[in-house]
Amino acid sequence: MIERLGPIATTIGAAILAMAVSCGVALADAKRVAMVVGNSLYQSVPQLPNPSRDADAVARMFKDSGFDVTRVINAGNLDFKRAIRKFETDADQADVAVIYYAGHGIEISGTNYLIPIDARLASDRDAEDEAIPLERLVSSADGAQKLRVVILDACRDNPFTVRMRRERKVASRNVVSGLGKVEPTSTDTLIAYAAKAGSTAEDGTGDHSPFTTAILKNLTVPGLDIRLAFGRVRDEVMKATGNKQEPFVYGSLGGGNVSLVPAPAVTQEATASDVKADYDLVARIGSRRAWEVFLATYKTGFYADLARAQIASLTDQVPSGEPPSAAGQITTAAVDPGTPAPGREVSSREALDWDRVKDSNDIAALQKFIKRYPDSPRSIAAQSRVELLQQIAREREQRARAEREAAARAAELAKLQAAQKKAEEAATRQREQDERRAQKAEAEAKAKAEDAERKAAEAKRKADEADRQKSAQEAAALRAESEKRARQAEDERRKAAEAAIQETVCKDQQAQFDALNSKSDAPSALDDMKVLAKSITCSRLQPMVAMAIDRLKLEADKRAAAMPNSPQLVRSAQTELARIGCLTDKPNGVLGDPTRTALGRYLSIKGQSSSDLSVTEALVADLGKQSGRVCPLVCKAGEIAKGDACIASEKRDEPKAAARRQRDDEDDRAARRKPARREAQQERRQSRPEPRARQQATSRPSGGAAAMIGVGF
After folding, report:
1. pLDDT tens profile 216-227
2. Where would a tag sit more exposed on the chain, N or C end, judged by fewer CB atoms within 10 A?
3. In this protein, which residues make up the domain named Caspase family p20 (predicted)?
4. Using CB atoms within 10 A of its CB, is residue 600 exposed (0-12), middle (13-18) or buried (19+)?
């Protein structure tokens, strides 16, 4: 009987001790894991302000609710995939797995993708390589035994869809902002969207999006069914957005109550029979520790008073076996702390070992004691202390991890705040510098005006004093001098005021000049600058405006010179045409008929069309590439080509030569005649009229030219 009672007592005692140590924590809490991802700092599109803050808040919510949380902030492609792979392993060993994602998402041809921060997505082909399929994220939670929940705050207006090229040839390859409808493939799975499929969600103006704000408020209410929690989220989001955004949940669960955080356990008061049974069990064990555990469980009542009496009797080493003192009182044996339980001998070595470890915080020493004395009732207390120490170690580790994560978040926040503060300080410094400059100019003008006023007052005072002390003439002279100085002072004050006004005008006109100067490539830049030159009054800017106008004129002249048929291009073309023998006129920059004829000859020789003659830079460059004569030499009538020049034709001069020879012969004959005859001939010539001109005509050789008529006497 005693041998059979020992194991029973050990088991029941262990249950009582575990109940006392657990302090109200559920015996079989489900293991719950969560992965929280927030992507804000996108590298190729504008950044999102809220997802990283949303993810931090959701991660803290799950951690405070007892989840083992994997937190991923601003994940690139590789980090995102590694986090999913790690979470798959965690979910395989869990009962409940929850995934939360905040950032950009996109649907391409019916496939949903989540976008890492380093994705570029230049075309729809890149999504398979640079983005994460939603199906992969959902399947990473399939290993959870009881419940799987995926929460997606990724339905924002997506800038990737605007810039993405559509390279797929499939007609149905459409690209849509946000995510499309999805149905879970496994049971006991819910997928919650921030907005209904095909619509977009608001990012919000506060610290969190409207969807995440409602999630933080309702999702982890202890004992609240998750379907009812998502219903509350829907109602609050629609109210916050004026019914513009409607969250939606896909999937279904069974008929029981399913909550992410269990309802707090309700402690039921033990019945009198249960207390009596526990009292009898502890009485059989008989150790001081067993009675202390009993009192920790039942702090008040009749049996609690008996247990205190038993502890007092053990302290006083009262002999056991006393008879009951009254009806209904149960007799128990008073056992010394070193006395073994019935049916078991306790060695002195065990007692010594227990004294060494009973108050120890060394888990290894306590486990060694349990291993050496597995059947000892003290092993129950040792095991309870081990579990308590392990629980304390876990809580300490959780606190340390929470502190590290909080420190990391604080460091990141401090970094962002420092960058923002730096930018704000730079802007403040610039603003203060501008204000100081303006104040300085204002102070200088004010000082000059005050100085002028002081001078005027001093002059007036002197004038008044002189008027009192000197004669009227001297007073008049002093007054004249005083008035002169007053006028000078007034002039100085007016000049100072005008200088201040002029400085303001100069600043405005400087801004106008800088704006026009930055748009010098505009067609109207020269005209705008001329208009500014007419209206400008700031003397220091006038030379700058004049230089800018000269520069713009030079640039306009260069552009005009490069225009087709410009005088410069025509003159260059004429020079080249004359060089290659196609034009005989002098270059004058006018595209007249001789130049057009020369261009036509050149283009005909080159085998190009001459229907639309236009002098361009390309044509001038082509003419410059020609070497030597290109067009054949054309001579005038009566000339022949010899080399690169035209010379007079010899046949044209033959009639004149013959006439000259005939006259020479006649002169010779006349010279040989007798003088008498010569005299008679002279007389006859005097009596006759003037000799008639001899006409001699010769025709040019074949060639179709007009006949030459030579006249001789």
Report:
1. 999 999 989 999
2. N
3. 30-159
4. middle
> What sign for the dihedral angle of Cα 467, 472, 476, 478?
negative
Q: 60 and 180 share a domain? A: yes
Q: What does each C-alpha distance from 651 to 404, 548, 639, 698 come to in angstroms?
A: 117, 68, 10, 9
Q: How confident is the model at residue 708 (pLDDT cuts 50, 70, 90)?
A: very low
pLDDT at residue 135 greater than cutoff 80: yes
- Structural domain for 605, as ranges: 567-632
| Residues 301 and 173 occupy one common structural domain | no
d(CA 96, CA 62): 12
For tokens 């006409």, name the residue.
Answer: 695
Same domain (yes/no): 552, 604: no
Residue 571 lies in a domain: yes
Does residue 414 fall inside a structural domain?
no
Q: Using CA atoms, how far apart are residues 337 and 341, in angstroms rounded to an integer?
A: 10
Strand, coil or helix: 126: helix
60 and 161 part of one domain = yes
Bridge partner residues of 709 (DSSP)? 697
Lowest mean pLDDT among 35-49, 70-84, 407-421, 695-709: 695-709
Helix (H, G, I), strand (E, B) or coil at 247: coil
Considering the domain architecture, whether residues 555 and 575 belong to the same structural domain is answered as no
Average pLDDT over residues 601-623: 83
Where a domain ends, among 533, 561, 589? 561
Q: What 3 state SS string does 465-506 have?
A: HHHHHCCHHHHHHHHHHHHHHHHHHHHHHHHHHHHHHHHHHH
The most confident of 349-353, 412-416, 451-455, 694-698, by mean pLDDT = 451-455
DSSP, collapsed to helix, strand or coil, labels residue 133 as: strand
What whole-number distance in Å separates Cα of residue 519 and Cα of residue 465? 64
Query: Residue 126 is which amino acid?
Result: D
Dihedral-angle region of residue 230 (phi above 0 means left; psi in -120 to 50 means alpha; beta otherwise)? alpha
Tokens read off for 603: 């283009």
Distance CA 609, CA 607 (A): 7
CB under 8 A, 24+ apart: contacts of 626-630? 626/576, 626/579, 626/580, 628/580, 629/580, 629/581, 630/580, 630/581, 630/582, 630/602, 630/605
Place of tokens 């087709």: 564
Q: What is the DSSP secondary structure assignment for residue 637, as one 8-state letter?
A: T
- For residues 37 and 142, state if they share a domain: yes
The type of residue at 224 is L
Across the strands, what pairs with 268?
A: none
Tell me the C-alpha distance between 542 and 536, whole Å.
7
Q: Does the pLDDT of residue 89 top 60, yes or no?
A: yes
Domain's final residue, options 561, 588, 612: 561
* CA dihedral over 246, 247, 251, 255, signed as positive or negative: negative
pLDDT in tens, 292-322: 888 888 888 888 888 888 888 887 644 444 4
- Whether 295 and 207 map to the same domain: the answer is no
What number of H helices and E strands is found in the chain?
Answer: 22, 14
State the Cα–Cα distance between residues 213 and 405, nearest whole angstrom.
21
Q: What is the CATH number of the domain that holds 66?
A: 3.40.50.1460
Q: What is the pLDDT of residue 232?
A: 93
What pTM was computed for the model? Answer: 0.39
Q: How many domains does the chain have?
A: 5
- What is the length of the chain? 713
Residue 282 sits in the same domain as residue 208: no
What would the two tokens of residue 358 be?
């009973």
* Per-residue pLDDT, 691: 47
Give whole-number Cα distances, 279 to 20, 216, 297, 312, in Å.
15, 47, 11, 16
On whether residue 5 sits in a domain, the answer given is no
Per-residue DSSP letter, 651: G
Give the residue with greater pLDDT, 20 vs 178. 178
Residue 407 domain flag: no
